[in-house]
Design goal:
The complex is a heterodimer of chains A (317) and B (296).
Chain A lengths: L1 H28 L4 H6 L5 H11 L5 H13 L13 H36 L4 H15 L2 H15 L23 H27 L2 H9 L3 H31 L1 H6 L5 H10 L3 H29 L1 H8 L1
Chain B lengths: L1 H5 L1 H19 L1 H23 L31 H7 L2 H28 L1 H15 L3 H12 L3 H28 L2 H8 L4 H38 L10 H9 L7 H28 L10
The chains are: A mainly alpha (317), B mainly alpha (296).
Chain lengths: 317, 296
């Protein structure tokens, strides 16, 4: 068990290291560097060389990689190209905003998904299942920007209930994002709920047809006791990984939603910095998002290990 | 005639896909999905012949007009006929994803089968590289390439095909692992068949079904990515009509001319839902469990 845990941790670290190599190599291979982005049309001859010397870009790539990754580990993500600001400072507020958005969506989406997943699994093929499952298919297949546009049309243009766009500056305190944050949270939570509830549903169905549930039925255990004591806890086990994948997707892939609602999160910053060819910022955001992705998946694997009765008893021995 | 007699395997396999198609059609959701996809393909092929207006035709006296007999879905901010533009709006997306999807499935499938066949530590390490690629958000990878090399189809097709082939590696490798331990593969190895012939004659036919389902799903995700890129302003460039781009354009005047968004929203959503329903039907017809699938 401990060996399994250590192995999984080592694989996670290896993946993050590989990601950092890919990010660095990717930026190296692409034409242009921090100097060509900063100098724009003046980027030629002695000016370019002087700039590259000043930023140390004339040194071999592997030295710069170790410098970059070494500094990143200690929290120094370098300087942004445009405003000569530190990337860590720029990214900090945005990351916090994205985390707030994600947390709100997780807090509403996950319980709702487990509830709906259990309901649709227990009443399989009944009207309630058909309605919820069909809605879920719509929510998970229709592009986020379409869902968002339709919701803006309904809730802010026609009904005038909720603001359709966020105007609060990135460094404002959390409270000021209310009620602007509501629509983005609803869109995110919808997509998330749909993915997780499908998983919980199929998992509940397979657990309910398991032998130990039949055994409990034959022993005369009341139906709801079977559902709550035996079926749902076991059904949630395989759902942990989907929740993790969804959360990881949420942190990295909310780009479109953030752009639609003008929400000042990490995703929108990513699009802006790519468009501005602000490579240090792009590298930093990529590294953060990938690390979170690997970390969340790692946490899910470890959680599954501990929640799995067979592995748990092995550990206790 | 002679060809058919010599090659019974080919007839058998095309018969099989016909049966699979019938199986998809037999389910209500599959029938709806197939109809929607067929409708969209027909629309994409025929639309240049049947649109009432040229998609570039500007009517300066009819800007942002509501639905009327002359313009069924109204006009946009340049006075162009929205109905004509939305009929044409899926063509770019279908052409680009229609070329990129098979390439993605082919290269990803081939590499995945190869990894699965190699196995051992090399395979484990190579899969970590695949994981590392997958941990970066798709939009970041795509945008960096598009901003560097431009957003024409010559950039979009290879970029989509490359990045959407990577998750296919995972699927193909897992499917290969299930097959590779079976007796007929060991027998082929023992007989000393070269690696290429083991892949093409023993592994590929057994992994094919999984790859077909995966390809159908990749197609819908690729469409989603393509339209999202257009929406963000990095995909199709104006004046070419595209649903994602049209939805982006209508957002500026959503408060006073919301009808422009309606057509593209319905068409784009229906196409992606149609592909998903077809893919689900295909998975069921081939007996492949796709329920335990997460995003990404």
């Amino acid at each position: 068990m401990l060996r399994l845990l250590a192995r999984r941790l080592a694989l996670g670290v290896l993946t993050v290291i590989l990601v950092s190599v890919i990010i660095f190599a990717g930026v190296e291979v692409l034409p242009g560097d921090a100097c060509t982005a900063y100098l724009e049309r003046d980027a030629e001859g002695p000016i370019l060389e002087a700039c590259q010397e000043r930023l140390g870009l004339d040194r071999p790539a592997y030295i710069r990689y170790f410098e970059w990754i070494g500094a990143a580990v200690s929290g120094d993500l370098g300087m942004s190209v445009g405003g000569n600001q530190s990337v860590a400072e720029l990214v900090g507020d945005r990351l916090a905003n994205s985390l707030i958005l994600a947390a709100a969506a997780i807090v509403t989406g996950v319980p709702l998904a487990i509830f709906l997943g259990a309901v649709t699994g227990l009443w399989r093929d009944r009207p309630i299942d058909l309605v919820v499952s069909t809605t879920a298919i719509f929510a998970m297949t229709v592009p986020e920007f379409v869902t968002a546009t339709v919701l803006i049309l309904i809730f802010s243009v026609w009904l005038g209930l909720l603001p359709g766009i966020v105007l609060t500056p990135p460094d404002a305190p959390v409270a000021e994002f209310f009620p602007e944050i509501l629509l983005p949270v609803i869109v995110l939570a919808m997509v998330m709920t749909a993915h997780i509830l499908r998983m919980v549903r199929s998992s509940v169905i397979s657990v309910m047809s398991g032998e130990y549930v039949q055994m409990a039925v034959l022993k005369g255990v009341p139906y709801w006791q079977i559902v709550f004591r035996h079926a749902i806890p076991n059904a949630l086990l395989p759902a942990i990984n989907v929740v993790a994948l969804t959360i990881a997707w949420l942190l990295g892939g909310v780009v479109v939603i953030e752009v639609v609602f003008n929400y000042p999160g990490l995703g929108r910053m990513m699009v802006d910095s790519i468009a501005d060819q602000d490579l240090p910022t792009v590298q930093a955001i990529a590294l953060i998002v990938a690390t979170v992705y690997v970390g969340v998946n790692l946490a899910a694997d470890i959680l599954t290990m501990f929640a799995n009765p067979r592995l748990r008893t092995q550990l206790m021995r | 005639m002679a060809d058919q007699a010599v090659n019974p395997a080919r007839t058998a396999s095309s018969m099989r896909w016909l049966i699979v198609l019938k199986d998809i059609w037999a389910r209500p959701s599959g029938a709806i999905g197939l109809s929607i996809v067929t409708f969209h393909i027909l629309l994409a092929v025929l639309s240049p012949l049947i649109t009432p207006y040229d998609y570039r035709e500007i009517d300066a006296f009819n800007i942002l007009s509501g639905p009327s007999a002359a313009h069924w879905f109204g006009t946009d901010d340049l006075g162009r006929d929205i109905f004509s533009r939305m009929m044409l709006g899926g063509r770019e997306a279908l052409i680009v994803t229609g070329i990129a999807t098979p390439i993605a499935v082919l290269w990803g499938g081939f590499v995945g089968i190869l990894f699965g066949l190699i196995g051992g530590r090399i395979d484990e390490f190579l899969m970590r590289i695949v994981d590392a690629f997958l941990s970066l958000p798709w939009i970041l990878k795509m945008l960096v390439l598009i901003v560097t090399f431009g957003s024409g189809n010559a950039v979009l097709i290879p970029t989509l095909a490359f990045f959407y082939g990577i998750p296919v590696i995972r699927i193909a490798r897992a499917a290969t692992h299930d097959v590779v331990a079976r007796d007929f593969v060991s027998a082929a190895k023992a007989r000393g068949h070269p690696r290429f012939s083991i892949i093409s004659r023993e592994l590929l036919p057994n992994v094919m079904d999984t790859l077909m389902v995966e390809g159908a799903m990749r197609w819908s995700w690729m469409l989603l990515a393509f339209s999202s890129l257009s929406f963000l302003g990095f995909g199709v460039s104006p004046p070419t009509p595209d649903w994602g781009l049209m939805i982006k354009e209508t957002r500026a005047y959503l408060t006073f001319a919301p009808w422009g968004a309606l057509g593209p929203v319905i068409l784009l959503s229906s196409l992606i839902i149609g592909i998903n329903l077809t893919a689900d039907g295909l998975a069921k017809a081939l007996g492949i469990d796709r329920a335990q699938k997460a995003p990404v």
